[in-house]
Amino acid sequence: MSQLEQTVSRYRSLRLSAAADELTSLLAEAEANEMSYLSFADRLAEHELIQRQDKRIRRNRKMAAFPVEKRLEGFDYRHQTTITKRQVNALLDFQFLDERNNLVFIGPPGVGKTHLAIGIGHKAVEAGYRVLFRNALDLVEELELAEMKGELKKRVSALAKYDLLIIDELGYLPMTRQARYNLFQLINSLYEYRSIILTTNKDFTSWGEFFHDDNVAVPIIDRVIHHSHIFMLGGESYRLKQKVTS
């Protein structure tokens, strides 16, 4: 075994896989730039840290389960004029996550609520936060299944491990009594502990319609909006406009 092979093997034993994989090229770079021993040691550490961070971001992005690829860079602020790029960019320091605040996007279908939620979610992943996306209907079914198995508390605890839970399209379909109870358990467990991005087509005064029970709607609304940034989005459907003009 050559000295290079032996060194690579030792790096792998120390779980420095990124440095091991690129040691030959890193050595060539050091020689070409006449690096000092300390500079080379720092370059190895830098390379390992960057690769680990990239790997963690890729893993967390996959775990987030975004349904489509939507980025803030592709959001059309010219069409959606009820929210500005400045307002969205102000959220990207993620103070709202650090302070366990929520974001609520309210508006009719097709005005960009989901696009914004996913776009902010991607940025949060890149900033090192753990994110999970769930369509509201899928989330309700997920909680109902857990409740039927006697595992509701376990499932709620698992969801609460994420720094940010995105709940998309709440309010499009009515909910059963058990579904309302399960959702309340989740929202209550996240309250002042984790952050939520919520998109909905109904303002808070209409939540009683799909909950069929103001006694449940009120405490859920109270916990969602207590620490939240609320954005009312208007305008015509972007999807409909694209279809008409195509």
Architecture blueprint of SSEs:
Blueprint: H1 3-13, H2 17-21, H3 23-32, H4 37-64, H5 85-89, H6 95-98, E1 102-106, H7 113-126, E2 131-135, H8 136-148, H9 152-159, E3 164-170, H10 177-190, E4 195-200, H11 207-211, H12 214-225, E5 228-232, H13 238-245
Parallel strand pairs: 1-4, 1-5, 2-3, 3-4
Helix pairs in contact: 3-4, 4-7, 8-9, 8-10, 9-10, 10-12
What descriptive keywords fit this protein?
elongated, 56% helix, 5-stranded parallel β-sheet, Rossmann fold, single chain, 246 residues, P-loop_NTPase, DNA replication protein DnaC, 2 domains, alpha/beta, ATP binding
Can you walk me through this structure?
The protein contains 13 helices and five strands. The chain folds into two domains: 1-61, no CATH class; 70-243, P-loop containing nucleotide triphosphate hydrolases (Rossmann fold). It is elongated and about 75 Å long. It has 246 residues and is α/β, with parallel strands linked by helices. The mean pLDDT is 90. Helix 3 crosses helix 4 (37-64). It has a five-stranded parallel beta sheet.
